[in-house]
Amino acid sequence: MSVLEIRDLHVTVETDAGVTPILNGVTLTIRTGETHAIMGPNGSGKSTLAYTIAGHPKYTVTSGTITLDGQDVLEMSVDERARAGLFLAMQYPVEIPGVTVTNFLRTAKTAIDGEAPAIRTWTKDVKSSMKNLRMDPKFAQRNVNEGFSGGEKKRHEILQLELLKPQIAVLDETDSGLDVDALKVVSEGVNRAKEETGLGVLLITHYTRILRYIRPDYVHVMVAGRIAEEGGPELADRLEDEGYDRYLPAGVEEP
Ligand code: ADP
Ligand code: MG
Ligand code: MG
């Protein structure tokens, strides 16, 4: 049982134009076993929240806290965050030239567990997870994210999720660029992790489509760096019908 607590989080980013506030007081609690969806218009700060939890150096926390089981996440290195049980799948995953998927996964697993996984069970686990995600076995020998299609990048994220067995996963726009078949496969992977390990999920999405496959327990709407509204799955259904217009100032259209 783990709990990720975000309290009154204020985050700025430095640009050529100076320091810009992006998150203006975000409060959120995610426990293992729970699925939270963060929805909201483009540019509202959803990815900024994901990057901040991940420890991206571009984002500065000016006040507020993030803790995992009472431990200060903001004081942790990126590696320590992963070892503590956090998993972050970014909207735009980076390429790692010269590192194959299979070596990457093994290195990550070793770093997180503090010891190398036993070869035989590990090879079996990787094979069966890849099969679950309908991935070609040849994929394991490709370099991480190099020339991956949108769908392959997302499957690779979920493959990591299945094998690394984190406590809490932040998935930023895991649905973007997926056709319906890939969306189903990816959602099944997340749902398997929820069932098998009691994974807690923070699912960031602009669209309601993925929420038909991964049902959220809670829905939070982010607007201009704040949570503007919270509710259950019915809130996602309403957003599907109405969009985000009601949250935006009159006359402003979503960018
Ligand atoms: P969302 O994921 O909800 O679309 P983002 O968190 O990506 O929103 O962006 C929120 C706002 O912060 C946008 O106005 C965006 O331009 C700005 N922003 C985010 N990251 C950066 C960055 N690294 N440099 C400059 N501006 C940024
Ligand atoms: Mg966006
Ligand atoms: Mg985003």
From TrEMBL:
CDD domains: ABC_FeS_Assembly. The lineage of its organism: Bacteria, Bacillati, Actinomycetota, Actinomycetes, Micrococcales. The keyword ATP-binding applies. It comes from Microbacterium insulae. Pfam families: ABC_tran. Residues 4-249 form the ABC transporter domain. Keywords: ATP-binding, Nucleotide-binding. PANTHER family: ABC TRANSPORTER I FAMILY MEMBER 6, CHLOROPLASTIC (PTHR43204:SF1). Belongs to the ABC transporter superfamily. Ycf16 family. SUPFAM superfamilies: P-loop containing nucleoside triphosphate hydrolases (SSF52540). This is Fe-S cluster assembly ATPase SufC. Transmembrane segments: none annotated.
